[in-house]
Each structure stands twice: as C-alpha cells, then as structure tokens.
Write a structure and sequence with these properties.
Layout (H helix, E strand, L loop, with lengths): L2 E6 L5 E9 L7 E4 L3 E5 L2 E5 L3 E7 L3 E8 L4 E6 L15 E3 L4 H8 L3 H7 L3 E3 L13 E6 L5 E4 L8 E3 L4 E2 L5 H7 L39 H14 L6 H13 L17 E9 L4 E6 L7 E4 L2 H6 L4 E3 L12 H7 L1
Parallel strand pairs: 9-10
Antiparallel strand pairs: 1-2, 1-14, 2-15, 3-6, 3-18, 4-5, 6-7, 7-8, 8-11, 11-12, 12-13, 15-16, 16-17
C-alpha cells in the first residue's frame, strides 16, 4: 500500500512524490534506463524511445515502480486491490503489456500526458504474474508532467483511459471517484483554531491551536491517508526553491509513513514504507529516501551525458547505513 502526491512550488517547479509500502523487500535502488531499448516484458517485448531514471531492478528484464523521463513525465505505480481488471490477451493490433511493465513502457514512450493519452489507446494490460511478488499485481498509476497536470490510470476494463486527478493525490483502493467524494466528509477541517460554543452559562476552555483539524483521521488505511495527504498539501506553507520543496514533501510523507510492525497483512508480515521517492519533473532528478536512513536523500540526475552516451541500464546501489552526525568529536577529544 502506498501514498503519492504531486506538488507545485512558488517558482512553478513541479514534483511527484510517493511512499512505497509493501511487506516484501524489493531491494530498491535507483536505475537509469537509456534510450531506444527493447524490453522483454512479462507479456511480450516492447520498445522504448526515451531515457529515464527511477526505482528499478534488472531482473529477468528491467522493472520499474516509479520514475521520471527526459521530458519530465513522472509515473508511479500503487496497489489497487479488488479493483484492477486485466485482460487475458490483447485484442488484435494492440500491445499486450503486463501491469508491472507499465511504468517502464510509459516513461519510455510518453513526452507528455497528452502524448500518453494517445498511446494508451493502443495498449491493453494483460493478466500476467510478476515474479518478484509471485502473483498478478493489482495496480493503478499516477502520472504528471511539467505542465502540472495530474492524471491517474485505473484499469477497470479493456479500454485504458486517463482520469483527471483534481487534487493530485492517490493512495489505494477504492477508486479515485470514491476518494474524492469521501473528502467532502472532511470539508470542514481547517488549519485555524475554532471558537468553542457556550453551553448555558458554561464557557469551555479553549484547547488551543489545532482544533480546526479535530477529526482528521490518523490511521494507515488508504482512505485515511488520502484525506490526511490532501489536508497537509492544502494548508502547508508553499516553498519557493527545490531544496525547500523536497524538505516539505518529506514532512508531508512523514504523516503517512508506516513503520515496521504497526500494520500487519493477512500472512502476518508487516506492511511498511520501504522507501520514499521524490521526482523533480523540471530539474529531472530522482531522489530516494530509505527506511533505514530517513531524512537522507540519495539522488541521481538525468543528464545529457547519460542520455547521449550511456547505452546500457545502470543501477546505483544505495547506502542503507543510518547516518548519525556527531558534532562534538573534537570537543570531546580536547576535554580529554
């Protein structure tokens, strides 16, 4: 289970961020995918044209769960249990694509959301298991580009369509329409202190700032994470530059990050936030923050040199060591 959001800062910079929540450790790392690749996908081979970076692994073939391409298109895949509908085989003339291969295909072929909207008319998602999870993964996808437009793809039938996401937030099941209707339940929440009513001759004492958010759900269900992320995205102070925006996105995702042990799944394993990623859709950088060292962003930039000169996928292994910055080492030495 995961949470994702898009964000635009004061300078017009556009970002896509997400948590990757699952009970299986995917061994996440950042991977660069060069231009013009033939990918032997699980439902058949497909071609890519554009280079991209993201959370990927080179297994039997290149697999990605999120990333940003050379045109600033960002895509992330999230779990969509009990709602995803796939086909057994593709119709004549359409590309058969396993759902776990959609991110790589979209990043490798779409220059914009409008471009993707045309391409998916010729694609169908096929029911094919993903080896890494030993099942057919029920997935949906959030996509954004440097225009700031955000859409989701929810495969619920043979024809794929992009759905406008007016709030730029996506979690898991139910579908987006349900989540959008549900946030009307919390439409009275605010970031200001609410005045207390008088009861007869009794004047209740104020509880102080924060009373406007009383009723904001705090659990880890997809429904509550959707509401909580929208609330924070709406009220948090908007930063100007990229470093401050990345810092802000970390704070937002803090509210939906799942530590190990607090959310058990049906097999008894713990669903937890393995990593959080941050895609700068204008600066073309991909940053990852691991469970083992929260707060420490490990980043790869998509450069012209990579795009023009690197011909094969490149994996960037990540540092999982927790970082502690000791400030008084010299002082302690002097005291001795």
């Amino acid at each position: 289970m995961c949470t994702s959001l898009t964000y635009t800062n004061q300078n017009g910079g556009h970002f896509l961020a997400r948590t990757m929540d699952y009970s299986i450790d995917f061994g996440a790392r950042i991977m660069f995918m060069p231009r013009h690749r033939a990918v032997k996908g699980d439902a058949g081979e497909f071609l890519t044209k554009y280079g991209f970076i993201g959370a990927g692994r080179q297994l039997k073939h290149e697999l990605f769960t999120d990333g940003v391409n050379e045109y600033g298109v960002g895509v992330a895949t999230l779990y969509f249990p009990d709602h995803a509908v796939y086909q057994e085989k593709a119709d004549a003339g359409k590309l058969a694509l396993a759902p776990q291969d959609f991110v790589a295909w979209a990043l490798g072929n779409a220059k914009s959301i409008d471009d993707l909207r045309e391409h998916i008319k010729h694609v169908q998602l096929i029911s094919h298991p993903a080896e890494v999870v030993a099942m057919v993964p029920p997935l949906h996808f959030i996509i954004s580009d440097p225009t700031g437009e955000t859409v989701v793809l929810e495969p619920t039938g043979p024809e794929l369509k992009l759905i406008n996401d007016p709030v730029g937030v996506m979690t898991n099941s139910p579908d987006l329409d349900w989540h959008l209707q549900n946030i009307s339940t919390y439409g009275m929440l605010t970031n200001t202190e609410q005045p207390l009513q008088q009861y007869g001759d009794y004047h209740p004492m104020t509880q102080g700032p924060g009373t406007g958010a009383i009723g904001l759900p705090g659990d880890y269900t997809s429904i509550s994470r959707f509401v909580r992320t929208n609330y924070l995205k709406h009220y948090i102070e908007v930063p100007a530059d990229t470093p401050d925006t990345l810092n802000l996105l970390q704070y937002i995702l803090n509210s939906v990050t799942i530590p190990k042990g607090v959310k058990k799944v049906s097999d008894g394993e713990s669903d937890y936030t393995e990593y959080r990623s941050y895609m700068d859709l204008d600066g073309l950088t991909y940053s990852m923050e691991l469970y083992e060292n929260p707060g420490d962003l490990q980043q790869v930039a998509l450069t012209d040199d990579m795009l023009n000169n690197v011909m094969h996928p490149v994996e960037y292994p990540l540092n999982h060591q927790a970082h502690v910055h000791i400030l008084n080492t010299e002082e302690t030495s002097e005291l001795k």
